[in-house]
Amino acid sequence: MVASPLVDGDQLITLVGGNENSLVVSFDKATGKERWRALQDTAVGYAPPVIFDFGGRRQLIMWHPEAISSLDPSSGELIWQIPSRVRAGAVNRDSSQI
User: Fold this and answer.
1) I need a surface site. Which of 36, 45, 82, 91 has the fewest CB within 10 A?
2) 62 neighbors 49 (Cβ within 8 angstroms)
């Protein structure tokens, strides 16, 4: 893993991968207990999770090798997704092609 985890309140959000719907996983930062998991991809990528406020709604933005995805940071629920395949295993695509 090269993407930094994200601490958001009492949770730690990080890229995990490996199993179905486990590209990104939220853990309780005090206990390590899993809170939620989301997204499926063939690779993890290198872009760290980030949170932005769009239209009054907090969104966890994940840029991974198959898409750019927005999740609800409290539940992992998918808000929107734009397919965007990269040409290599890293997330390093020319943004003008998105």
Assistant:
1) 82
2) yes
Q: Is 97 helix (H, G, I), strand (E, B) or coil?
A: helix
Pairwise CA distance, residues 72 & 54, whole Å: 12
The topology under which CATH files domain 6-87 is Thrombin, subunit H (2.40.10)
Q: What is the pTM assigned to this prediction?
A: 0.81
| Cβ contact 65:43 at 8 Å | yes
Stretch 1-29: mean pLDDT: 87
